[in-house]
Amino acid sequence: MIDAMTSSGGVAVKDLPLVTTGIELKASQNQADTYRGRRIRTIGSTEVVWVRAKQPSPSQGSAITAVAVEACYDTSKLKAVDAAGKDIRQPGTPTRWLDSRDVQLVAGSWKVSNGRNRGAKC
Fold first, then answer.
1. Among candidates 52, 54, 73, 66, which has minimal Cα distance to 3?
2. Are 89 and 96 in contact (CB under 8 A)?
3. At 60, is the pLDDT very low, low, confident or very high (cuts 50, 70, 90)?
């Protein structure tokens, strides 16, 4: 959903609430606002190198209602461009990212509720 939102220049946001909630939904909406305001969009796609679930969060009863997920992704084939099509990625920007997301079961759907990423060799 994030790749779709960024490649649209921050316009394709209607599906964000299907996969995000809370802090993460607000952060994604803010990112979309920035892309629209600065007339930025992305070309290409993010490659997921690996994903792993971490220990589930304590839950009520035997049902798991929250889990942490960690992923390594590569953005080397993704380009951010301005309205003129000029690449705006700053020199030295990482292209490998270690991403940690908290995922919650909300009304029968799994949604990202909080996330963090950092440039990392993963």
1. 73
2. no
3. low
